[in-house]
Structure formats: C-alpha cells, structure tokens
Design a protein that fits this description.
Elements (H helix, E strand, L loop, with lengths): L12 H19 L12 E6 L5 H12 L3 E6 L11 H10 L4 E6 L4 H7 L6 E7 L5 H16 L9 E5 L6 H12 L3 E5 L15 E3 L2 H5 L4 E4 L15 H8 L3 H4 L7 E3 L12 H4 L6 H20 L3 H7 L1
Parallel strand pairs: 1-2, 1-3, 3-4, 5-6, 5-8, 6-7, 8-9
This protein binds N-carbamoyl-L-aspartate.
The site of N-carbamoyl-L-aspartate has 11 residues, from α2 and α6.
Length: 317
C-alpha cells in the first residue's frame, strides 16, 4: 500500500488494478440514489493549486465531497502565495490547520515530491500535476476509460495498442500515461514532431514515431495532447496549420483506428489545432466520459490513501 501518489511509477500492477477496481465499485455505489458515502467523514482534504485548472480541481473537490470529507480549496491567486509565500510556509500553515491530505498542482516539476518528502507536513500528498513532469491521477482515469471500452471494465490492457500524440515535451499527462500503461501491459507509441519529443524519449518504455498515419492503423485508442503554448518559449513548429496537417486528428485519421477504436483528450482541447471539432464531438470520442471517470478514480485514490490511516480503522472497528 502506498502512502502518497506522486508518480504513476509508484503503482505496481496490483496497486493500479486495485485503484481501478475500487473506482468501478465507487461508480456503481454513487450511481445509485445515494451520491454521498460517509467514508471520509471528519477528514480534511486541501486542494492546493498553484496553476490554473478547471477539470482536475473540480474533480478532486467532487471526489472528496462525495466521500464526505471537508474540503478546503486554496488557489494561489488571491492568497498569500501571490505575495511570495513559499511552498514550505503554505505547507506549515495547512499542517497547523489539521489537513489530512493535500492535493497539489504546481508549475515546478518535483514540487509534490518535495512536499511529501519534507518534514513540513505529515499529510498524504497527491500530485495533481507538477510542471512538465507527472499527473498520475490523469493516467489512472485514462486507464479506467480504456479498460471500460476495450475490456468491459474489468480485464487488463495486455497487448492493447495506444497511441499518444503531440506535445509530449510539455506533457505530464504523456509521461504518467506511458508509465502506467506499460505497467498495465499495453503497447504504447508516442508520436509528434521531433521538436516536441523530449530528450531521452528513446529510453521511455514505449515506441517512438514521427508518422501519425502509420501508427494509427488498427490502434485501439489514440490520446491527443494539447499543444501547450503557455509553456513554449520558442517556435517548435512552423505554424498551426502545418501542425494540424501533420499531427492533428481529423475524421480521416480517426477512421484509421480499429473499428471500435476510441479517442481520448485530457482537456482543455484546442479545437481545430490538435483535434477537429467533428472528432472531438464524434462517436469515437470519450472525452466527456474521461471527466466523469476522473471523479470516481480520484475517489478511489483518496479512499485507498486516507482510508488506510490507522484512526479510521479504529473508528470502523
Ligand atoms: C492536463 C494538465 O493540466 O496537465 N489537463 C488536465 O489535467 N485536465 C493537460 C493540459 O493542460 O493540456
């Protein structure tokens, strides 16, 4: 049993499958008339967001509330962080307020790790995205979505072909997905312009390609990545039209997938850039399901991390 969730590499296959199975059970439980479970009553979960977020922040908030935890959402804008307060001082403050878990999103790669390994706080730490490094709960919700579509929700992803496309260089989603999908036995290929693939990608546990049409043929799923203009300080490709022509997903390309192949995107989407509106809203797209699944997967993560605290077990007993 892990104590924090900082990287997709923290999860071995048993732990990952246990989280995905728990998410399935929680989805069924909250699908019934009772949306709220008492599991984390009396626990305090803090959402500590130093970077903009819509989906992830709301998803963690909904997850914690459905498990009856008290939730404090703390965004850097409008707090003392914008006056220059350090991560350390913020962590000490949260600790003093009795938080049990901190969900952290930060522009610096390694921030969640720093927090977890420090003696600033004893909280359970969940990485909700650190710089261009990792975003493990996104990888879990993607794996959950893939399992649901490709294996009726229960089987493994052994030998399933998943293609991850685009701005891999700036994508914490790509890195976490490659690690987790490998653990779950999938066969992953990353594809993008050479300028948007990180140095050392050849050592990642996946295949690498520059030719999207070629790798899409017969694949079970394609995961489109957002072109992260806000993290770019140079020109990585000639222009948007050229990018879309080589690496954008349109209907013709989506139809190269296996007959029941699906299209994922973590959001927010640049419609017309990495994906056309027709594909984003089309029959293969599972983008909205990913959002729904995100809540169940994050409930499962909180349940497994906080549910394991000794006091809770005493209470239950
Ligand atoms: C991703 C992120 O923030 O890393 N989005 C998300 O969590 N839903 C991907 C992105 O911003 O493109």
């Amino acid at each position: 049993m892990i104590h924090h969730l900082l990287s997709a590499a923290d999860l071995d296959a048993d732990e990952a499958v246990a989280i995905l199975d728990t998410a399935g059970e929680l989805a069924r439980a909250t699908g019934r008339s009772v949306k709220k479970l008492p599991t984390l009553r009396g626990r305090t979960v803090v959402n500590l967001f130093y970077e903009d977020s819509t989906r992830t922040r709301i998803s963690f908030e909904a997850a914690a509330k459905r498990l009856s935890a008290d939730v404090i959402t703390f965004s850097a804008k409008g707090s003392s962080v914008s006056k220059g307060e350090s991560l350390k001082d913020t962590a000490l403050t949260l600790e003093a307020m009795g938080a049990d878990a901190v969900i952290v999103r930060h522009p610096a790669s390694g921030a969640a790790h720093r927090l977890a390994m420090s003696d600033w706080t004893k909280c359970v730490v969940v990485n909700a995205g650190d710089g261009t490094h990792e975003h493990p709960t996104q990888a879990l919700l993607d794996a959950y979505t893939l399992r649901h579509h490709l294996n009726d929700g229960s089987g493994d992803l052994d030998g399933r072909r998943v293609v991850i496309v685009g701005d891999v260089l700036h994508s914490r989603v790509a890195r976490s997905n490659v690690l987790l999908l490998k653990t779950l036995g999938a066969d992953v290929t990353v594809v993008g312009p050479p300028t948007l693939l990180p140095v050392g990608v050849e050592h990642w546990p996946c295949a690498v390609s520059y030719d999207l049409d070629d790798v899409l043929v017969g694949a079970d799923a394609v995961m489109m990545l957002r072109v992260q203009n806000e993290r770019m300080n140079a020109a990585y490709f000639p222009n948007a039209r050229e990018y879309s022509r080589r690496y954008g997903l349109d209907r013709r390309r989506a139809d190269l997938l296996a007959a029941d192949g699906i299209v994922l995107h973590p959001g927010p989407m640049n419609r017309g850039m990495e994906i056309t509106a027709e594909v984003a809203d089309g029959p293969r797209s599972v983008v909205i399901e990913q959002v729904t699944n995100g809540v169940h997967v994050r409930m499962a993560v909180l349940y497994r991390l906080l549910g394991a605290l000794p006091e809770l077990e005493t209470e239950a007993g």
